[in-house]
């Protein structure tokens, strides 16, 4: 395979037959500045910069001592947490096998399994300051179905956060275009002081992903105790 620069960009050329979508993906990777930065700085994926940018905006990692990473593969977010504070205890979970990360406990299991929450809390050995979720359901190509499946993961993550977070803690989760639905927002507003949506610059413009950032964990309250959600671009 050779890589030919054209107009400042690299184009994939090869004698091996590739689909148009495969060539497009390879060219995007080759020319993505975040991919290049991740490689240069030793991060496992460009997704690391999404957390870095969210942290710069919301101070998510300030003073955190225990963090749970839901959907940890390939490990970029956990790397960011450990680089910010090596002493932070990080426990991650994923269906996929993840190469070891120094100082990080990684559980290879389905977060939706009944035993997953207890396994995570046992490994963490104390209340969490932050629960991160970059989980997304496998897409089937039907927008409404994909949205519902991903929202089910976000809601399961929020329910888990309500069990493991210390007062004042935070929950960050990936959602799809349009953000969290009204039911989930209402749940989060009962649990947290502030609930916001953001799309970090590292998230590709053509991607439907956004993130919901819930901060100031206060525990579950009665359904009537709901504040207005603040939307952020």
Automatic annotation (TrEMBL):
Record EC number: 2.1.1.166
Active site: 174
Keyword Magnesium among UniProt keywords: no
EC top class named in words: transferase
GO molecular function, one term: methyltransferase activity
Entry keywords, A to Z: Cytoplasm, Methyltransferase, rRNA processing, S-adenosyl-L-methionine, Transferase
Matches recorded under HAMAP family: RNA_methyltr_E (MF_01547)
PANTHER family: RIBOSOMAL RNA METHYLTRANSFERASE, RRNA METHYLTRANSFERASE 2, MITOCHONDRIAL
Protein name: Ribosomal RNA large subunit methyltransferase E
Organism per entry: Sphingomonas vulcanisoli
């Amino acid at each position: 395979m050779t890589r030919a620069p054209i107009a400042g960009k690299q184009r994939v050329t090869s004698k091996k037959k590739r689909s148009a979508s495969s060539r497009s993906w390879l060219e995007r990777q080759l020319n993505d500045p975040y991919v290049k930065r991740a490689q240069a700085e030793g991060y496992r994926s460009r997704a690391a910069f999404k957390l870095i940018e969210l942290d710069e905006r919301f101070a998510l990692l300030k003073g955190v001592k225990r963090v749970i990473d839901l959907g940890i593969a390939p490990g970029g977010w956990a790397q960011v947490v450990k680089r910010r504070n090596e002493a932070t205890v990080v426990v991650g979970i994923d269906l996929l096998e993840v190469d070891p990360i120094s100082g990080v406990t990684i559980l290879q299991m389905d977060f939706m399994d009944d035993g997953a929450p207890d396994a995570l809390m046992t490994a963490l050995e104390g209340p969490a300051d932050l629960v991160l979720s970059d989980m997304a359901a496998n897409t089937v190509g039907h927008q409404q179905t994909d949205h519902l499946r991903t929202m089910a993961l976000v809601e399961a993550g929020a329910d888990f956060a309500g069990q493991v977070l210390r007062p004042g803690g935070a929950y960050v989760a990936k959602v799809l275009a349009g953000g969290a639905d009204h039911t989930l927002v209402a749940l989060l507003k009962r649990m947290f002081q502030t609930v916001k949506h953001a799309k970090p610059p590292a998230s590709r413009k053509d991607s439907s992903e956004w993130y919901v950032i819930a901060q100031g964990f206060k525990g579950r309250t009665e359904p009537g105790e709901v504040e207005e959600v603040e939307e952020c671009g």
